[in-house]
């Protein structure tokens, strides 16, 4: 019996090694803080220019600490207050800069790991799932932008599906690294229906799983978008 127990333990240890073998690729202790900030800034300004915003990426009291934690995350530091082996759920008000910052951060992760973290808006993701199914999105690293604003229920292949809810159940079971931005708090998204029976979220089961898959980060501050009355940026 003792030999059988030892063999069982060896098998489980091997499974653990297989499951954890890629954790180190998301971290690189050689990346200096000043290099990280410059790299992040360059990606952010590139994405801003694609949106027609030709201005410097601003670091201020609303995002400075978050960027610092991002650097700790990238180098795998014990000083990081986030779980460096999980994704990130970044909430905040409309226009506060969370999408640009998260997109830039995911590009830094690609730079150090060689693994693409595909950025895809939640609504676009739902459309692709309805057209092609879940398989292509169940395991690979993803940055899902603006969850909670997508169509929560759709018809696909003759069946009614809940694209993000169903996908998150799959990704949770596969340990897929996932990053999110949202204008909604996770508690709101964890509701299933409101008092009138209207579908408004993913339910507490998926809310709990997203909470386990990520560190919840709240981006403070108001909109950074230029005033409509301004003629230049």
Question: How are the SSEs placed, and which strands pair?
Answer:
Elements (H helix, E strand, L loop, with lengths): L1 H19 L12 H18 L13 H12 L11 E6 L5 H16 L4 E4 H11 L9 E4 L8 E3 L2 E3 L1 H12 L3 E5 L3 H4 L14 H10 E6 L14
Parallel strand pairs: 1-6, 1-7, 2-3, 3-6
Antiparallel strand pairs: 4-5
Q: Order of strands across the widest beta sheet? A: 2-3-6-1-7
Name the CATH architecture of the domain at 86-219: 3-Layer(aba) Sandwich
Number of DSSP helical runs: 8
Which spans have pLDDT < 50 for at least 5 consecutive residues?
A: 228-233
| Overall geometric form | globular
Distance between the termini: 73 Å
What is the CATH topology of the domain at 86-219? Rossmann fold
Radius of gyration equals: 20 Å
Helix-strand category: alpha/beta
- Name of the level-1 CATH class of the domain at 86-219: Alpha Beta
Mean pLDDT level:
92
Regarding quaternary structure, how should these chains be classified? Answer: single chain
**Number of DSSP strands?**
7
Helix content: 40-55%
**CATH level-four homologous superfamily name of the domain at 86-219:** P-loop containing nucleotide triphosphate hydrolases
Beta percentage is 5-15%
- Biggest sheet record: 5 strands, parallel
Order of helices and strands: HHHEHEHEEEHEHHE
List keywords for this structure.
233 residues; alpha/beta; Rossmann fold; five-stranded parallel sheet; two-stranded antiparallel ribbon; 13% strand; disordered C terminus
What's the quick description here?
With 233 residues, the chain is an alpha/beta fold.
């Amino acid at each position: 019996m003792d030999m059988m127990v030892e063999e069982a333990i060896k098998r489980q240890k091997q499974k653990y090694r297989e499951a954890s073998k890629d954790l180190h690729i998301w971290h690189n202790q050689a990346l200096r803080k000043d290099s990280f900030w410059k790299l992040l800034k360059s990606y952010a300004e590139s994405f801003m220019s694609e949106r027609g915003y030709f201005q410097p990426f601003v670091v201020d009291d609303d995002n400075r600490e978050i960027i610092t934690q991002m650097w700790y995350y990238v180098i795998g530091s014990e000083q990081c207050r986030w779980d460096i082996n999980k994704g990130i759920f970044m909430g905040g008000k409309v226009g506060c800069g969370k999408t640009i910052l998260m997109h830039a951060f995911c590009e830094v992760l690609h730079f150090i790991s060689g693994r693409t973290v595909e950025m895809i808006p939640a609504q676009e993701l739902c459309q692709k799932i309805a057209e092609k199914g879940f398989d292509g999105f169940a395991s690979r690293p993803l940055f899902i932008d603006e969850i909670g604003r997508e169509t929560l229920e759709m018809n696909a292949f003759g069946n009614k599906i809940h694209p993000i809810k169903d996908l998150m159940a799959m990704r949770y079971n596969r340990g897929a690294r996932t990053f999110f931005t949202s204008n909604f708090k996770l508690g709101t998204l964890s509701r299933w229906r409101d008092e009138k029976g209207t579908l408004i979220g993913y339910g507490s089961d998926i809310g709990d799983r997203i909470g386990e898959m990520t560190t919840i980060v709240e981006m403070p501050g108001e909109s950074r978008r230029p005033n409509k009355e301004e003629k230049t940026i």
